[in-house]
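Morning F.,

Quick status update on the modeling queue. The single chain you submitted on Monday has been processed. Sequence for confirmation:
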Amino acid sequence: MSGRARARGPPRARSPTPPPGSSRQEGALKQIRQNLRNGALDTSEVPMPPVGPVEILVRTHYSFVSVGTEKMKVTQARMNLAEKAAERPDQVKQVLNTLKEQGVMPTVRKVQERLKAPTTLGYSLAGTVEAVGAQVEEFRVGDRVACIGEGIATHAEYNAVPRNLAVLVPAGVSLEHASSTAVGAIAMQGVRQARLELGESVAVIGLGLLGQFLVQLCRANGCRVVGVDPDAGKRQLALENGAEAACGPDLDEALAHALRASGGLGVDAVLVTTAVKDKGPIEMSVAMSRERGRVVCLGNTHIELDWRTWFAKEVDFLFSRAMGPGIFDMDYFLRGRDYPAGYVRWSANRNMASFLDLIAQGRLDLQRLITHRFPFAEAKTVFDGLADGTLASAVGIVLEYPRADAAPTAAEPRTVRFPAAGTPGAVRLGVIGAGNYAKSMILPHLPGLAGIGLEAFCTARGANAEALARRYGARYATTDAAQLLADPQVTAVMVATRHDSHARYAEQALRAGKHVYVEKPLAMSDEQLAPVLEALAARGEGGPTLWLGHNRRYAPLSQQALAHFAGVPVRQVTVTVRSAGIPADSWYQDPAEGGGVLFGDACHFIDLACHFAQSLPVEVHAVSTPDPGHREESWAITLRFASGGIGVVHYTCGSQAGFERESVDILGGGRSARIAGFRRLELRGGRDRRVVTLQPDLGQKPMLERMLAQFQRRPGALDETESFVVAAQALLAAQRSIRERRVVTMGTVFPFALD
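Structure tokens below.
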């Protein structure tokens, strides 16, 4: 039965309560988390997740432990730093790039924060629906469902799951068996990539759970199957599941079995599920394959292709995309937008449903494959056993959750409180959202600032909020932004969510009478900005102020450069940025969520040009050049200021090699200044020349100090709300200029009075 088979109106939503006599926080749930620094595991109480419009709230009955993937995660987390670096050279490269661009201390903070952040485990479960989102029609409260998704279908008592990552469990299929659906969908996609036909021969290299599923699926597809694995128990299990032969990693033996099963031709397809660092499995796969055969890689294995062998046989090497199309598409799994079946027959969701249907039909037998069962309370024992090898023989491991007989009472997300916590300060800060940038570059500075105290953290996933609240001594962690905004003890709000929600939270906080810090950009459209301007216009005397996270204007070298032009009109500001670019699959590049690099990064330099000009922009003209992926990656943005000066921002992706990432040239009144990489400043005026060199400092801490002075209305502190709104409007004007291919004249820039 497909997850799309039934349409029903949304029922009365419910969310869980703890059983009578429990000491747990109301609405809290237990979730397994892992410390990336040392690999330590804990089962923490975290806030209930909110249920979005295209999500369902699922109470977990069983979650499935991936012997391969989760063993790898636990093992890597317990490595020392040198071992971690050797394991992930891609991340080492990122660290080195950050070190080059930002200096030692920002890089150290980023690495430390990554290691401090707890990570969740699990990506496959089965349970019952407790609440449904407003746009969900195919599920109702009480439905039995199977769910997938890393960071979504976690080892936790409750999870909020997007609609496309959940399917109904057919009658006759146990929830225990259905909890393996993620691995089953991976197997389904692998078989589809292999393009198997009746009567073909197949080799499966790696006979863990995924390999056992593949053996059964290939047999159900009318194929002859040969299995390869070093573990004798798993080879025997493969024979019981329908393989006609199984052997160890000896190449000669494997080749002999392949030739017998294929009538001397070599197998038609090879499915590789291993997660090893040596090239043996890939070399074996091509040796076992016939000419013009197919090799499909489903595991994280070392790939090194010998050109002569592969060329001579003309063998196809294919990858299988996890559970199927959609699993890496944010529109699909986060926003619930499905693919038309006529164009994408087997999406991730449809692979899930097909797997469960095969179980219901009796085509797949999981009875022998679930080899170990543990209560959820013993999860730490399970992961320790995977790491130390005591569970090396396990094929399928299931965690069973306690039955919750008490009926849930409300669907609202809840809060975990820390009564003894709370730090003193005249400004009481609540934080909404906390991504990598906020955690590494903003939050670490706050404890050192006098006059600010942290009240609360709110994130969509409660584990993040709970960990941050504990670390910074906040009073509570929540997944309910409305609760934080309504809290009278919160006097200022920091918005560090993704770009599409900045304006909404800023408006709500201003209308609640709270000062607001918003990570850039303030808004992604004029329609988003308008309510913010209305909220600012509605302020009474002494009302809340707005701050935007444009830190570069407060960098030490920026401040010295600006002082160099005191009393002298700036005639031209030229900013050149040579960026490495942002990956296409980043949420930054999503037009709806991130807005692309213009909103994510280039906005800093529009603000910087306005700041150095010390004048309002009156005209904006921008052009862009798309990269081969048709994303706008390079811009030339020209701003004409009311003072008569001009600002130019050149922003280019992919051309930073050999040069500093950012440089700023300021000219006017016979004076000049050049900032190179925010580590070197050259000042000239007449015959005078002065050079200042510092460790790279992009100004986060001095920015926060100035922000705090504004929020506290200290004597002499400037209200910089206007300048931030101007920068936001100039950014939107640049976007409009690109789209409409014209010069944009900025009209009334700030349509309300300041105090």
